[in-house]
Amino acid sequence: MRTIPFVRCFVFAVAVLMMLCMPASSAAQVSVGITVAFAPPDLPVYAQPVCPGEGYIWTPGYWAYDPDFGDYYWVPGTWVLAPQVGFLWTPAYWAWGGSGFVFYEGFWGPVVGFYGGVNYGYGYFGHGYEGGRWDGDRFFYNRSVNNVNVTVIHNVYNTRVNVRNETRVSYNGGNGGINERPRPEEERAAHERHLPPVPDQRQQVQAARSNQELRASVNRGKPPIAATPRPGAFNERGVVRAREGGAIHNAGRENMSRGNASRDNPGRESAGPENNSSRRAGPMHPNEIPRPERPTPPNTGNSKQDRKYQQQQEKLYTQQDRERQKLQQQQEKEHQQLARQHADDSRRQQVEQRHQQQTEQMVQRHSQQQQKLQQKQPAPRPAPPREKERH
How many CB atoms lie within 10 A of CB 378? Predict the structure, then answer.
């Protein structure tokens, strides 16, 4: 499956405008223009490598998406030097956007922002960070959740953490997703001064993307390199394998297994980028897309505005559902024609590629429509001022 972008030119123009209007370190956490129609795999289970030295902060592993192969790939967790004293890491996360899963990039800042309620472990248990804290210009490590050698690092403490959210689901919202919303301090953190991933983290992502064994279709959710002691150290001592794999969700499983046919039967298909149509893992037909949740009625305190916005939500929901059914019926009709004509494999593949393109375009269009409607969502009515108490 290809990436389903939010109209790339528009996203780029918005990003440029934000950079011109804001300081480079103050932009809010936003999506990076990637939407995928099927959910990322669950998180694998792995051990944390020992901390290499003072000032390093743990950045957990996560599933990223490669549009060239239509496949998720694992970015191993690693220890990264904080770019600035007092800064903490807010992990990246995926969230259901109405017609697909949207990727939100992580960032550095003085306060940990929202990361979808995802339990990445090792201090990132859904909200905030409990793996350490800054005290002046030194970072102190919580040994109860971090692998720290106290003969090398002496600034440590022990605080036990009760973890309530023990799910390994890696995305927020949608069917089966984590039902968490940003807390007020997390929303503020996204708009306060912060920095994007540092070059070492970019290097970690690029190394992961170029490693075929880290693709979900190859490792089946159990990456052979789950974590590294330092960014880019994929072949050094201390690299950790996953102990348990994360489930790969059914929306992409069938097509990923088709992409794996080249490994099971090398004489049948080419596995290289030149034939990545056989490796795409996205849904080809509308009935393979998870149905969106029916919109929740707003409650801003203004009944007239709430009723109007709910009517708009229901209208869009009905319209998009009708379009999905229509496209599904059209594609099923073409399948029946192929069967009557006894079409060969080449012809069937061409039709399936066109069906996938149609489905992707529909998902993209629906996502843009829902985002446009969300921008019109009425703001909550401010509470009336309290009357002064009489004495």
Answer: 14
